Known about the structure:
The structure is a single chain. The protein has three domains: about 35-55 and about 200-310, Sandwich (Immunoglobulin-like); about 75-200, Sandwich (Immunoglobulin-like); about 315-480, Distorted Sandwich (Glucose Permease (Domain IIA)). About 5% of the residues lie in helices and about 40% in strands. The protein has one helix and 30 strands. A hairpin with a 2-residue loop joins β15 (about 235-245) and β16 (about 250-260). It starts with a helix and ends with a strand. Bound molecules: zinc ion.
Amino acid sequence: MNCMKNKTKGIKIMKKMIALILTFILVLGVYALGYPQNNLDIQYKDDIRGNEAIKYKSTKENKLDITHQIKEVIEIKEDINSNIQSNSIKPDLRLYDLGVEPGCSYPFAARKDAVLQYTVANFKNCDCKDVEVGVKIDGELFHTFNIGDIPAHRGYITTFTIGNYREGTYNVEIIADINNIIEEEDETNNSDSGNFTWIGTPDLVAAEWRDEGLSVYEKDKKYDFYFRVDNAGTGVAKGETIVYLINNGDTVAQWSFIDFPENAYFEKDITLRFRDEGDYNIGIVVDKENKISESNENNNSIIKKYTAVESYGTMGWEYMYNNPNNRYISSGYGLPDRPDHYGIDIISSNSSVDHIYGDPIENVCPGTVELATESPTAGNYVVVKSDNIDPITGNNLRVRYLHMKGTPIPRQGDIVSKGSLVGYTGNTGYVEPLPTPSNPKGGTHLHFDVNNKAKTGYLTINDTINPELFFPLITFSGKTSL
Ligand SMILES: [Zn+2]
């Protein structure tokens, strides 16, 4: 019998252990699958997690904003509780009935006006002159105001408004004759106090999502991103606030805080790498499960679409100049000082134009010459239809060489190889400064652009790609936009 019992016990323990092991495997599995990295790699600039990473926008301290108003004058008929005779020559100020003004909703809303009410009255047959009233909050005197004279046997029902208070419970005390100037029959009944509560509502906001502002993102390259989440409401987001980094609907990282305070924010620098070509919908969502009740539930996410393309840098294009000085960009691609400039203007890093004027320009990619001509603005120029297909538009990429000295070397329809001579660097067409007899080489530069919209001219920034991306081994100086 004992043996049987032990056996049954043994089987039970085995079953329990198997269940435990299974649970363990399951938990591990969930952990591993928890953040599907899918086709996005994430790196963090720092790895601070939790509350220490929260910052404050500014010190938004409680600021008293008190106004007061005499609502009603009352008559004190008789002082039945006092054994002091009513013909006393001293007055007796009393302050009582401190509470929420009838009709004012309570608990008070944080940062909004809260109206309290009290009664101050003179119970004796002698006037009180210039009565000063003081307001203390949590024991600290914040404000005094003069309610004027209170004649014998008169009282005032007075309201006062406290504005802009932060979430919390505070002790409010009102004191008549705060500086104890009036000589009274009884000096011990001049104040009333109570605890009052202000309740706030948090508002979690996906406040900012910043990328590198590029029109094209290449796969396998790293890009910097930044985001910020604010609590822009009037109260603490109580419990756990979770910020999710989302890619195509999946959570790829998350950060959480306990009790995210009013006026606080969380920001993060991250580096992302697109591992595949295609579309990515990336951004942040705060409080995805909607666990926190907020004043505005519609500002909790920012998601942006990115298209990652095959790296332009792997197309094997060769830079058009052999001279290592000719890598200085005098006007960059889509930079703030000239946002509609859709190519790069190349000059020599030696400041004199002499150092690039006449330098041979070699074709950067194999292709076919689509145009070899001249115009008043582009001067002598060549358009090459590259053999390379753009992964976004499916068009053959086009490159253009502008402002060349003399007639282009190849002719329209010629098949050109990488490294074949296109022409010589010059200053034809519209250049700045325009050449003059005394400065015949003025304005010399090569304008080079790449477009993926099958255009030979009339380009805009939206038709083009930053040419610097095609030459990953070249280090440009000047107005580079990489
Ligand atoms: Zn240009």
